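NADH-quinone oxidoreductase subunit F, Pseudomonas syringae. Tokens?
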Amino acid sequence: MTLTSFGPANRIKRSAETHPLTWRLRDDGEAVWLDEYQAKNGYAAARKAFADMAQDDIVQTVKDSGLKGRGGAGFPTGVKWGLMPKDESINIRYLLCNADEMEPNTWKDRMLMEQLPHLLIEGMLISARALKTYRGYIFLRGEYTTAAKHLNRAVEEAKAAGLLGKNILGSGFDFELFVHTGAGRYICGEETALINSLEGRRANPRSKPPFPAAVGVWGKPTCVNNVETLCNVPAIIADGVDWYKSLAREGSEDMGTKLMGFSGKVKNPGLWELPFGVTGRELFEDYAGGMRDGYKLKCWQPGGAGTGFLLPEHLDAQMYAGGIAKVGTRMGTGLAMAVDDSVNMVSLLRNMEEFFSRESCGFCTPCRDGLPWSVKLLRAIENGEGQAGDIETLLGLVGFLGPGKTFCAHAPGAVEPLGSAIKYFRPEFEAGIAPTSAVVPPLAKPIVVGA
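Tokens:
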């Protein structure tokens, strides 16, 4: 895994002023342990938060910074924190870190946890102080064995230094932190499915309301934030709201920096901390180096397998939620994938939908039955055995499984790339329809309530 600097061709060094997430990284890729982390101003923000800031002031600072969730949904972090109850008599509250990073093409949280475990711990410590939570859990993807090893070591280092446990920094505030490895389910990325799994239950999403801030882990108020989100907190507390907002490019409605990347047959696949508002073209050409010799960019996804495909002409879109929305999809995790001109889109989508179908929790009918149906149709088209009307049926499934039609956001994310692939590359799907196939009535259009 590579991580380059803010500027093309490594002309600009990473610094605390421009790279709040990554400036402490070692050039050799080894983890930054406690002594080195503190030598690089680590836990200074936590000391400031404990000594100089009221708990509500921490929440307000994060809210004013414009920090949004970095897991893909992009919900304002300070607003989410503000949903936690103000009643001081509720003395059992939980902070959960969503580290179940199972989105295909996404590995940003892994890098932070493996190389900067104390940055996450400091972010959780400050957040726990603000939210008055006495216990925290890092719900970690089970396959991230190195991250688990490094996080557990960092937790023990922080305990020994008095930065976790009882009476932290002499403040009278107690906070315990545990690393919990999951059993390997994509659906655990949904916060309420994560909560169910942590409790030892089947990883099904819960009905909302009540939201976790009111009824979360073991029925107590709970806040769930993504790894990268929590890692932004120390810099915001240390250097202030105005500085943090100034990091983003002009025109971006999202503040700060974002870990972005490019995978696929590009010359320099990797991960970089960049300001919100850079264009997809900068990311693709200046950082990823464009396509390898002999390959041509066919299309790309801006932020994981659950985002729609875009064409090369969309590379000039700015990389922030609103900028990507203007060209018809979502920012997602911000880690893009390049699809080269040798790839058949039907085969690619069949592979994707097999993954999403397998990872469905099976709770609601559209997702449980609709995704396997899409796989069956795509497999037939891939083998040249598709029937007339199959493409229309696939488009009908895209509608039936879209936003607001299923219990959680799993199915809408699963069918978004399918709908965009048919939109831009329909001839490749049509090529898989058998010329002598009978006409099959297409799936009826979804009924829109209130239309």
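The chain is about 40% helix and 10% strand.
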